[in-house]
Amino acid sequence: MKKKNFNSLFWKISLVFFVLLAMVGAVYTYITVTYSNQYFDQVNQRLNHDTAYNIVKNSTPFYDGEVIKPAWEELFHSVMVINPSLEVYLLDPEGKIITWYPSDKETSLDAVNIEPILRFITDTTGATIKGDDPLDPSTQKVFSASPISMNNMLYAYVYVVLSGQEYYAASSSLFASYMLNIGTRTMIVTLLVTLLIGLFIIRIITNNFSKIIEVMQKFREGDLTARVDVKSTGDVKELGIMFNEMADILTLNIEKLKEVENLRRELIANVSHDLRTPIAIIRGYAETLQMKESTITEEKRKQYINTVSESAEKLDRLVNELFELSKLEANQVQAKKEPFIISELVADIINKYQLIAKNKNISIDTELSKELPPVFADISLIERVMQNLIDNAMKFTPQGGKITIKTTKSSNSKVEVTVSDTGIGIPEDEREQIFARYYRANNFTDLKNSTGLGLAIAKKILDLHNSTLDLKSKEHEGSSFNFKLPLYQSR
After folding, report:
1. What are the structural domain ranges in the chain?
2. Confidence (pLDDT) at 443
3. Rounded CA gap, 48 and 162, in Å?
4. Contacts 24+ apart (CB under 8 A), 193-200
5. Which of 364, 329, 328 is nearest to 347 (CA)?
6. Which three-class secondary structure string do you get for the chain?
7. Which of 301, 320, 298 is CA-nearest to residue 309?
């Protein structure tokens, strides 16, 4: 499969390269032939520019204003004896043919376009000018021309086609053969050398691509560690880097999906267990009340009803917290940030916990800075974080213990909130799991009021505020949680 991919890419690029070379060679040959013809025409016209003028200069063309055709034909014959490639014509002022040589050939035109002749006579730039060929109207040929005047009166023009029909046929054949030979040889040598060099370069390029394809094949077959060893330069290097980055992202996403799947399984297992317990209690005590309705004492009835009520409350709390955490993890909760004084929020929350703390013989101390500027956060979500941290501290702090809450300015742009307790602390080997769902310390025995979701919810809320929940703990001495919130920046 890998070899097939490489060969396919190599031969496709090679075929395209060869076709492009052949097209370039054909265009090169065409341009060479065209410009060579133009060059020879220009040279021919420049070398024979005065041919018509010399004919006029050495002639006695008229007698009593009449054209002496035999004299002209004899003169034209003499000219063509010297230069057989010429065709000579005598034209009237409108371009109509009066006589020509060789006279044994029939002309296809009765008149020649006079405009190129006038341009030739007046031209001083040396540009190549072509005119009609009376023997072959389909072609334009270089020529020489000169006016015949007497007493300032124009009588006629001598018009000399420099590449006569016979000369043109012979020279075209030879020139075509010459250009074919030299063009073919040049083109073959050029194509061969260029093709060999091009194939060598293509081989190098496709070899680098084949390595990338090989790595992609391994990755597709399940080897998530396969990466391109980037040693080349240019686009191949960029492609290799992009594949490696893409593979890293895919691998990370796969790991996250595996993690989510594991969490899903863990969630189902934990939810099943935690829901089953209060439901079983509710069902058991309800059935007991039904079966012993006539014999149970009033005191026992109240005890059973209280147990059912506590289990229902725990079930309701667990369902609500599961729903809350699920929304946070699914990014369905948006933080509605606004400025507020964090110390005032903390003071209000502590007032709600004073009675609970008193009943548990736990003291709550505060160190709230009254000069703190407003923070910028979602007040209801931060209140939820504080409640979860205080609930956590209350559960893990024994009677006679103390909870301390501080608010301080940690920098020019943040306020730090700390919740500390003198509870049982968290063992060092469990601290990495502290923010996971359903975490409960192994040394915590009062499980009846704990869902194990409080710290996980607090961490997710702080993630929405681009903040972290940090932990400091020492076993049997207590724990301290702290987080930071940004100050409100007024515009």
Report:
1. 2-42+171-214, 49-161, 234-327, 334-486
2. 42
3. 7
4. 194/21, 195/17, 195/18, 195/21, 198/14, 198/17, 198/21, 199/14, 199/17
5. 364
6. CHHHHHHHHHHHHHHHHHHHHHHHHHHHHHHHHHHHHHHHHHHHHHHCCCHHHHHHHCCCCEECCEECHHHHHHHHHHHHHHCCCCEEEEECCCCEEEEEECCCCCCCCCECCHHHHHHHHHCCCCCCCEEECCCCCCCEEEEEEEEEEECCEEEEEEEEECCCHHHHHHHHHHHHHHHHHHHHHHHHHHHHHHHHHHHHHHHHHHHHHHHHHHHHHHHHCCCCCCCCCCCCCHHHHHHHHHHHHHHHHHHHHHHHHHHHHHHHHHHHHHHHHHHHHHHHHHHHHHHHHHHCCCCCCHHHHHHHHHHHHHHHHHHHHHHHHHHHHHHHHCCCCCCCCEEECHHHHHHHHHHHHHHHHHHCCCEEEEEECCCCCCEEECHHHHHHHHHHHHHHHHHHCCCCCEEEEEEEECCCCEEEEEEEECCCCCCHHHHHHCCCCCCCCCCCCCCCCCCCCHHHHHHHHHHHCCCCCEEEEECCCEEEEEEEEEECCCC
7. 301
Contacts of 77 (CB under 8 A, 6+ apart): 101
Q: What confidence tier does 230 reach under pLDDT thresholds 50, 70, 90?
A: low
pLDDT digits (tens, 9 = 90+) for 181-225: 666 677 677 777 777 777 777 666 666 666 777 777 887 787 878
Q: What is the pTM of this model?
A: 0.48
Q: What is the CATH number of domain 49-161?
A: 3.30.450
Q: Residue type at 302?
A: K
Strand partners, 156: 148
Q: Is the pLDDT of residue 483 over 90?
A: yes
Q: Look up residue 237 and give its two tokens.
A: 């290097």
Residue 335 structure tokens: 């933080």
CATH assignment of 334-486, given 3.30.565.10, 2.170.130.10, 3.40.50.720, 3.90.226.10? 3.30.565.10
